[in-house]
Specification:
By secondary structure, this protein is α/β, with parallel strands linked by helices. It has eleven helices and 13 strands. Helix 5 packs parallel to helix 6. The radius of gyration is 19 Å and the shape is globular.
Length: 325
């Protein structure tokens, strides 16, 4: 098919990468993805297998820290769209691994933008920015114009990636957009993230494998959506004639405590009977509230979230019951 578009996704084996690959395949794209070589290669494509798309994507060994490799890859693939989703993306780990986080999550963005500028300047680029960049919030509801105040090495690195994307757009006239995505989850979320930790814990307690769920700050508030809704927004951004930056969020904030309650109630259990607050699980610098204003994305992209928090948590609990049962 002569007019078939080619997409290149870094982080294709992550939650968003897998759902984005599925979406683009449904739209008829050739989908290629960058995979970091590791000794655990056999588990790399678990999420793609879960969605049943592992045989339909082309995986290429590579790393965001290797500029020459990225240049060769983009020269070979000749992508129409590039989605940079790869990162050291676990906030807690960024305090233990600040230099690695900077190399991958910050400088890695420059590497792939450089490779694109050299080999595919006509391509369209998406950068995965993060609501963690707002950190110590400067406005009650965060929009594209809200000042940033990052509170972790991860957030600082993401802020660099965000601004270098804007800089390349303005300096080299690249079609480079950033999505400032608020928390988004799914059954494919990594087990270290709080929503998945909760749904996995609830499933284990329901099945008699555990008795308690240990969490840190359960009064933190987040704006949670579903990854499937959010990858659709990424694609919509790259279909616009003019590149821009967009907040992607639901506009609703919920405490970790209430999210837990939804999960426990779904399996007929009482939250208070099983929850243990562990001071060791609190962050060195906490982000207490995140609440996104998606008005621009709704108006300019025609984007709307379709999956509610309740539906998402139920889906995640059911998936974990199935995995563990």
């Amino acid at each position: 098919m002569a007019d078939r578009k080619t997409a290149f996704i870094t982080g294709i084996t992550g939650q968003d990468g897998a759902y984005l690959a599925q979406l683009l395949l449904e739209k008829g794209y050739r989908v290629t993805g960058l995979v970091r070589r590791s000794s655990t290669a056999e588990i790399n494509d678990l999420r793609l297998k879960w969605l049943g798309v592992d045989k339909d994507v082309e995986l290429i060994d590579g790393d965001l820290t290797d500029l020459s490799g990225l240049i060769r890859t983009i020269k070979d693939i000749r992508p129409d769209e590039i989605y940079n989703l790869a990162a050291q993306s676990f906030v807690k780990s960024s305090w233990q691994q600040p230099l690695l986080t900077g190399q991958v999550t910050a400088i890695g963005v420059t590497n792939i933008l450089e490779a694109m500028r050299i080999e595919a300047p006509e391509a369209r680029f998406y950068q995965a920015s993060s609501s963690e960049m707002y950190g110590l919030i400067q406005e009650d509801m965060q929009s594209e114009t809200t000042p940033f105040y990052p509170r972790s090495p991860y957030a600082v690195a993401k802020l660099y990636g965000h601004w270098i994307t804007i800089n390349y757009r303005e300096s080299f006239n690249l079609h480079a957009s950033s999505g400032i995505l608020f928390n988004h989850e799914s059954p494919l979320r990594g087990i270290e993230f709080v929503t998945r930790k909760v749904t996995d814990g609830v499933a284990r307690i329901k099945l008699g494998l555990e008795k308690e769920l240990r969490l840190g700050n359960i009064d933190a508030k987040r704006d949670w959506g579903h990854s499937k809704d959010y990858v659709r927004a990424m694609w919509l951004m790259l279909q616009k004639d003019v590149a821009d930056d967009y907040v992607i969020a639901t506009g609703v904030t919920t405490t970790v405590r209430d999210m837990c309650r939804i999960a426990f109630e779904h399996v007929g259990l009482n939250l208070e009977d099983h929850l243990v607050i562990d001071p060791d699980l609190f962050r060195p610098a906490e982000v207490d509230v995140l609440l996104g204003n998606p008005a621009k994305a709704k108006a300019a992209l025609g984007w709307e979230p379709e999956i509610t928090l309740q539906q998402m948590i139920v889906e995640m609990v059911e998936a974990d019951l199935k995995r563990l049962g």
